[in-house]
Each structure stands twice: as C-alpha cells, then as structure tokens.
Amino acid sequence: xxxxxxxxxxxxxxxxxxxxxxxxxxxxxxxxxxxxxxxxxxxxxxxxxxxxxxxxxxxxxxxxxxxxxxxxxxxxxxxxxxxxxxxxxxxxxxxxxx
Length: 98
Hints:
The chain is α+β, with helices and mostly antiparallel strands. The chain has helices at residues 24-27, 47-64; strands spanning 2-11, 16-21, 35-40, 68-80, 83-92.
C-alpha cells in the first residue's frame, strides 16, 4: 500500500544538511531525530545530482528501517529559509514490525 509523509531537509551552521521525517517511526524520541546526509550546500553540485542523492538517501533510510520497500516519489512542497519540505510517497513494508 502506498503511503505519504513529509520530510524536512535542513541546512546546518557548517553547510551540512540533515533529514527529519514526520512519521513517528522515524521522527525519534521527542520528535528530535535528524539523519545526517552527504549533501552539502556546495555550488558545484547540480540540482539534478542533489535530487538524486536525496532520493537515494531517503529510500535507504526507509528500507533499512523496514518502513518501505521503495521510494516512489519526492516532491518539493515549500522552501522556508534553510529548510526544504518534501512530500514523499513510498510502498509501505507489510507484515514487518517497525
């Protein structure tokens, strides 16, 4: 079954970016779990490359935590300062306790 959730990509003080999932399984205790990424704000990374890296990283987190079989879509919803909000759609992992 396909599911949707919001994911935030936030730029830190040193240019490193982190991901936060709004789903309770991946949000962490106190809704304060941030996943580091290899994506930085360097100018030589194209938008297409950044999107590919982001898609791959999110899919890896979802699959390794038994949340999804795969990521289907990644859509930018809004940009707010140094934070980008994405809506993701994924094929939910069935029959596995998260």
